[in-house]
Amino acid sequence: MCAADYGHLLLVDNGHRHHVQLFESKNQIPGRSAMKYVLYQLKKHPLAIVGIIIIIFWLIAAFFGPSMVPFTHTQMDSEHQMVGPGTNGHVLGTDSLGRDLLARIVYGSRSILTVALMTSIVSTIIGVLLGFSAGYFGGRIDAAFLRSMDILMAIPPLVLSMVVLGILGDSSILSLTLIVSIAFVPATARVSRGVLLTEKSQEYVSAARIRGENHLYIMFVEILPNTTGPIIVEATARFAYSIMMVASLGFLGVGMQPPTPDWGMMVIENKPIIAQAPGAVLFPALAIASLVIAISIFSDFVSKVLIHER
């Protein structure tokens, strides 16, 4: 005779009751309960809900905003330059050239989110490949990896990106994505190497070797699924760092170039008119801050759910 409760199986044998644990914790129950667990964690961390709402807002703005605003990001209103919010249909006002601030922020959200998302994905993929290979094979490969990563990490990512962009003279979305990704690879690779070394000594890895599985299978079929938590957390953190990086490069004048709107460049190019049109500087700065903080909050929530409270 048996009966099941939450995470345990109760067996009754000759009057003796035996509890058999089906899952290591309530957090690990498969199926629909995974969603219940996420919702439960969201209730415990209401600030994460705020972060998610802000992220969703900017995603909607990036994908659908350009078709909803009445102006384009290059359209100039020569009769209404440096006007305040609400003037002549300009919800957030205009800059020194009469361009609508709301339109430029909305169009800019698409470019900055595209670069940040692609940077996070590319740097994670390259970092996992390098970190897993170095940690798995060890020896000279690992030593060479550590030395090369130390050299790259000695150079601040912002400085490295500025130098490479300055040499290439190309600040397209593709160039920004590749350069910022390379700048972020060392940190991601080190995290990947660390989690692989932790899992490498586990019994299931030894069992896979005994079965005769090849190295790629062991690394990416056996080990990778058990290390997704720290890797996902690192990827979400890199997403926030990428937004700050792209905005900083734009502020320094080496980011995306006109006519592509860039939040960082909007701040610096409107700085001379801050007294006449403070919104021209304030609104793009608030956009940067809100998105970075929201993603940081979400990253912290993901870290708590996937790592600390397992």
Description:
- This protein has a single domain (31-308), classed as MetI-like (MetI-like fold, Orthogonal Bundle), CATH 1.10.3720.10.
- 65% of the residues lie in helices and 5% in strands.
- With 310 residues, it is mainly alpha-helical.
- Strand 2 (8-13) and strand 3 (16-21) form a beta hairpin.
- It is built from 11 helices and 3 strands.
User: Helical element count?
Assistant: 11
Order of helices and strands: EEEHHHHHHHHHHH
The fold-level CATH name is MetI-like fold
Spatial shape: elongated
| Superfamily (CATH H level) name | MetI-like
Which spans of ≥5 residues are poorly predicted at pLDDT below 50?
1-31
The radius of gyration computed from the alpha-carbon positions, rounded to a whole number of angstroms, is: 25 Å
Query: Percent range for helical residues?
Result: 55-70%
Overall structural class, as computed from helix and strand content, comes to mainly alpha
Short description:
By secondary structure, the protein is mainly alpha-helical. It has one domain (31-308): MetI-like (MetI-like fold, Orthogonal Bundle).
Properties at a glance:
5% strand; MetI-like fold; elongated; mainly alpha
